[in-house]
Structures are given as structure tokens and as C-alpha cells.
């Protein structure tokens, strides 16, 4: 019995050793497949303090309508026919690399145009017809196409398009005839920044997308992969965008580049240090900025003693907070203007009621004492009916303004409870208010046109001098002018706020 037991134990030990050896070998192979990542700061940018004091991005160049700021680069604003791009100043020499890009594409419409592109090309495509960059490039472009040119309802989409420098991009078919890989992803108007991870490793290009639905920065989903793809070993990284008949804000928050080194290979030597003059310049600029920042912090602490001990960084408003504050300020201004117009309209209504009352009493007094030269009774009734109709129309206009006022107040309360649910509902409130103002204008014009001819035909009886009040003609002129001025002011304010918002 001892011999079989010993054989069983030996067999179990052998199986255990084989299993351990297999696990160790498999773990080594798995760990060995992971490349070494090294961050390349000279080919990257990220906020805050993204730009220098002169408005330039270190180691990058921007062209066209691109607008760098402290926390992002607005490649194109939401205006029609805009083009912009940012490119690395010096070429990048890497066999394997990984790029992480965080961006926002936001606009008011249901559809946007044209889109955003991430490039790695042998030369800088500073300006051109392909998403704001040059056509017939030598390299690869990852396109975030938001406009459906071919009408197949396959947008927004992400496309990978390679080029050897001889092909012209097929705009009419949205590049579908030239794309090496594609996936459908809606990247417009997301609550969090959309992130793209592009990995070129062992001649395989992989694209992963974070849709921006959650604050998790690592929530990537596979988009597409292109194998056996050969691109230039040396080239320039760039980001470009363009707008056409429709428009979006294309904002890039960060571009981070990593050098990938295969396992077992020697790591590339670190690049030479920057020249001493350039280093001293950056150090001096940093010290000046730090002194100015400390000075501003001290001034803020003196002006706001209630926030002593609280980190000042927590008191600065974010881009979303600034947009929400501007929306509320604009709504409050419209609210005050409508209230003022409502009060003025109430005064005019009181004058009109008094005028109708005096006219009615005088006609009743003279109704039994008809004299020559006086208007017939039916003409007097026409005058009274006309005045009463004007009174009713003005009352309806005032009720319409009151409705707009209440609707605006309800919208502000709802937005106050919702916090930052987005700007679409806010825009709808502004559109509703403008529609009410259009109704007011049309009603006033209708009153003027309807009462112009009867006023010329009907001869009013001679009445005793009335107290100093507003005449009918002056009243109509006052209403028309007041409404036009108010309507123009609202449109100007809305346009000014929309223009100001584009640059934040």
C-alpha cells in the first residue's frame, strides 16, 4: 500500500510543479507584452496655465481661428466657415506612441459641422479643406465627423484615414471610401469631456473612446483597430477643426503624448536639456507669474476676510459655473425689462380707460340733444367700439407680457433647482420670450392698421376740452416705438451674450 500512495503523491507533486511553472511563464509573457510608457512633455499640453504670457502654447504653434486660453484651446468658435489648428513645432521621431486627447464639441443645434481631426503627418498641415488642415497628407488622421454629407444618417462617427500624400479626401461620402476603420460615436454636447486614446504599437493603430457620460477618465470603449499600418517614423502631431453652414465650439482641453518602448529593448536616452537662455527665460517668467499670483491671493484675502483659511483654488468659478452665471444674469436683465414694460403698459391702459369713460359719458349727455354738424349716433357707436377694441387688445398684450414674465420666473426657478443641466432649456426660454415679443409687436401693428382708416372717416363730435392726457395718435406711436426699442434691445442683448459665451 505504501508504494501506490507514494506514486500518487509524486504524481500530485509533479502536477503542482507543472501548474506553477505554467503560471509563472504565462505571467512573465503577459507582463512582457506591456510596453514601457514615457511621457513626452515637449509634445503635450494641458491646463491650467496652458499658455504663456504672450498667448502662445509652449512647443506648439496655432493657426487660423484657434484661440488658446489658460485652460483649453478653442480650435474653432461656433461661427460659420471657421478653420483652426494646433501643431507641434518640432517633428516627433517615435516608432511606437500613445496619445490621449480630451476635448469638447458643443453647439446649439441638433446637428453640428464639420468636425475635429487628430493628425500625425510627415509635415504640418497648417490650413486646408480637410477639417481645417491640408489635404493629401502623408500619415494618418483620426476624424470626428459630426456632419452627414452623404445623407446616410451615419454621423457623428469616428474614422481612421491614412494617406500617402497623393490621395484627395472624399468629402461627399464622408471619407467612407477611404477609411481604414470606423465606429459610430456621439461626441457632441456631453456632460463631461470626451476622451480619445490612440495607440500605435507594432504597426497596429487602435482607437478607444470615452463618451463623456461619466467623470471616470478611464472609462474607455474600443472603437476600431487597423493592423499592418505603416506611417512615417518622424512627423508632426496636430489637432484641427472646421465649421461650415452649421457651427460648433471645438475645444481641446489636453493632449498628452507617451513614447512606447517594446519589452526587452533599451529605453531611448533622455533628450538633451533645453538651452540655458531658454531655461532662464522660462524660470524668470515662472517667478514673475508666481509673485503676481501670491499678490492677487493676498489682495483677495484682504477683500474677503470671511474666507480666511479656505483654499483660494476652491473659490474660483469653473467654465460651467461662469456660463450658468452669465445665463442667470441675462435672464434677470430680461425679467427687469419686461417688468418695466408691463408697468408702462399698465399706465397706458389706465389713460385709455379714462379716455373711453369720458367719451362715453359725453356721448350719453349729448345723445338726446342732437345738433347740426354732429356725427350720427351709429358713428358715435363706431368710435366707442373702436376704443373698446383697442382697450381689449392692449389688455391682451399686457396679459401676454405677464405670461412671459411668469414663464421666465418659472424657468429661472427650475434652472436654479437643476443646477447645471445644460443650456438647451435656457435657450428655449429665450426663444419663448422672443416669440411673445413678436406677438406683442404683431398685435400692435394690427391695431394700428385696423384703426387707421376708421379714424380718417369718422368725425368725432366736438367735446369739451379734456384734461391733459395722451392723444390716440401719440398713444399708438408711443406703443409702436416702445415695442420696437424693447424688441431691438432684447435681440441685441441676446446676441451680445451669445458672442461673449463663445470665448469662455
Automatic annotation (TrEMBL):
Q: State the CDD domains in the record.
A: lectin_ERGIC-53_ERGL (cd06902)
Organism from which the protein derives: Triplophysa rosa
Which terms are listed as keywords in the entry? Answer: Disulfide bond, Lectin, Membrane, Signal, Transmembrane, Transmembrane helix
Q: How does it sit in the membrane?
A: Single-pass type I membrane protein
Highest taxon listed in the record's lineage: Eukaryota
Protein name (record): L-type lectin-like domain-containing protein
Q: What is its main location?
A: endoplasmic reticulum
One cellular component (GO) term of this entry? COPII-coated ER to Golgi transport vesicle
User: Which Pfam family, an example, fits this chain?
Assistant: Lectin_leg-like
- All copies of domain L-type lectin-like, residue ranges: 37-260
List where the protein spans the membrane: 472-492
Amino acid at each position: 500500500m505504501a508504494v501506490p500512495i507514494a506514486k500518487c503523491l509524486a504524481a500530485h507533486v509533479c502536477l503542482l510543479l507543472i501548474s506553477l511553472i505554467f503560471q509563472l511563464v504565462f505571467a512573465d509573457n503577459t507582463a512582457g507584452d506591456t510596453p514601457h510608457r514615457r511621457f513626452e512633455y515637449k509634445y503635450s499640453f494641458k491646463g491650467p496655465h496652458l499658455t504663456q504670457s504672450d498667448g502662445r502654447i509652449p512647443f506648439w504653434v496655432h493657426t487660423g481661428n484657434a484661440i488658446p486660453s489658460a485652460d483649453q484651446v478653442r480650435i474653432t468658435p461656433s461661427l460659420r466657415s471657421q478653420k483652426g489648428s494646433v501643431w507641434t513645432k518640432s517633428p516627433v521621431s517615435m516608432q511606437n506612441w500613445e496619445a490621449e486627447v480630451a476635448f469638447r464639441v458643443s453647439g446649439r443645434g441638433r446637428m453640428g459641422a464639420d468636425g475635429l481631426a487628430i493628425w500625425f503627418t510627415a509635415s504640418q498641415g497648417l490650413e486646408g479643406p480637410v477639417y481645417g488642415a491640408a489635404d493629401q497628407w502623408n500619415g494618418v488622421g483620426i476624424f470626428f465627423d459630426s456632419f452627414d454629407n452623404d445623407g446616410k444618417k451615419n454621423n457623428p462617427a469616428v474614422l481612421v484615414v491614412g494617406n500617402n500624400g497623393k490621395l484627395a479626401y472624399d468629402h461627399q461620402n464622408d471619407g467612407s471610401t477611404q477609411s481604414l476603420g470606423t465606429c459610430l460615436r456621439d461626441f457632441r454636447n456631453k456632460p463631461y469631456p470626451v476622451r480619445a486614446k490612440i495607440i500605435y504599437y507594432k504597426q497596429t493603430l487602435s482607437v478607444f473612446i470615452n463618451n463623456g457620460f461619466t467623470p471616470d477618465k478611464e472609462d474607455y470603449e474600443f472603437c476600431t483597430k487597423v493592423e499592418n499600418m505603416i506611417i512615417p517614423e518622424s512627423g508632426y502631431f496636430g489637432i484641427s477643426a472646421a465649421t461650415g453652414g452649421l457651427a460648433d465650439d471645438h475645444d481641446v482641453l489636453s493632449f498628452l503624448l507617451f513614447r512606447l518602448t517594446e519589452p526587452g529593448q533599451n529605453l531611448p536616452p533622455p533628450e538633451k536639456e533645453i538651452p540655458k537662455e531658454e531655461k532662464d527665460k522660462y524660470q524668470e517668467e515662472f517667478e514673475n507669474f508666481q509673485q503676481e499670483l501670491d499678490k492677487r491671493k493676498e489682495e483677495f484675502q484682504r477683500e474677503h476676510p470671511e474666507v480666511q483659511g479656505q483654499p483660494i483654488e476652491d473659490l474660483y468659478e469653473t467654465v460651467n459655473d461662469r456660463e450658468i452665471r452669465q445665463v442667470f444674469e441675462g435672464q434677470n436683465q430680461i425679467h427687469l425689462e419686461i417688468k418695466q414694460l408691463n408697468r408702462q403698459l399698465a399706465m397706458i391702459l389706465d389713460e385709455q380707460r379714462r379716455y373711453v369713460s369720458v367719451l362715453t359719458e359725453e356721448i350719453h349727455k349729448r345723445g338726446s340733444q342732437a345738433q347740426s354738424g354732429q356725427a350720427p349716433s351709429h358713428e358715435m357707436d363706431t368710435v366707442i367700439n373702436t376704443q373698446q377694441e383697442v382697450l381689449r387688445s392692449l389688455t391682451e398684450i399686457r396679459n401676454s407680457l405677464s405670461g412671459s414674465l411668469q414663464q421666465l420666473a418659472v424657468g429661472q426657478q427650475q434652472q436654479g433647482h437643476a443646477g447645471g443641466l445644460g443650456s438647451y432649456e435656457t435657450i428655449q426660454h429665450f426663444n419663448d420670450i422672443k416669440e411673445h415679443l413678436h406677438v406683442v409687436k404683431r398685435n400692435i401693428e394690427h391695431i394700428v392698421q385696423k384703426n387707421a382708416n376708421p379714424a380718417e372717416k369718422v368725425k368725432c363730435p366736438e367735446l369739451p376740452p379734456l384734461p391733459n392726457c395722451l392723444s390716440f395718435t401719440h398713444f399708438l406711436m408711443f406703443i409702436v416705438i416702445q415695442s420696437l426699442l424693447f424688441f431691438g434691445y432684447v435681440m441685441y442683448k441676446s446676441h451680445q451674450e451669445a458672442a461673449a459665451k463663445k470665448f469662455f
